[in-house]
Amino acid sequence: MLKRSTRNTVAILALLAGSAWLPAQAADLQPQPAERLRGCAGKKQEIERELRFAQESGNKARVKGLQEALAGANQCTDAGLQREREGKVRDAQAKVKEREDELAEKQAKGKKKDIAKAQHKLDDARADLSAAQAEVYR
């Protein structure tokens, strides 16, 4: 028969071995994230994901709109989508330029309140530009 300290050591080793095994097994059970698609396929995938969420939450108006968007996405071409996204970037760049000019004008007048407001508008326009640029590569 094993001594008490030997039994405790064996029990601890068995527990450690089991605890090392469990996380490895649990990781295998985790669903792997789906690879993100690009272009029109990615657009359809995103609409379908949002549609499932809207259906689960019972948002009928959102479901209807997303179903229409999905029908429109079936006419999508990657080249057309790329042109559309590049157009949004050009529009956003023009808006940033307009806001920069507006800020320079307000700075010339020197009214702090107007300058702060113009700076905020410029910051928003730059954020929109960054978002549009990110979409080009999706």
Compose a concise summary of this entry.
With 138 residues, this protein is mostly helical. 84% of the residues lie in helices and 0% in strands.
Describe the structure.
With 138 residues, this protein is mostly helical. Helix content is 84%, strand content 0%. The chain contains 5 helices and no strands. The longest helix has 32 residues, at 78-109. It is elongated and about 50 Å long. It starts with a helix and ends with a helix.
Counting DSSP E segments of at least 2 residues, the number of strands comes to 0
**What is the makeup of the main sheet?**
none
**Radius of gyration over all CA atoms, rounded:** 28 Å
Low-confidence stretches: 24-32
* N-to-C span: 67 Å
Helix content: over 70%
Mean pLDDT: 83
Overall geometry:
elongated
Oligomer type: single chain
Element-level helix/strand string: HHHHH
Provide a count of the helices. Answer: 5
Strand content: under 5%
Structural class: mainly alpha
SSE layout:
Elements: H1 4-29, H2 39-57, H3 60-73, H4 78-109, H5 112-136
Helix pairs in contact: 2-3, 4-5
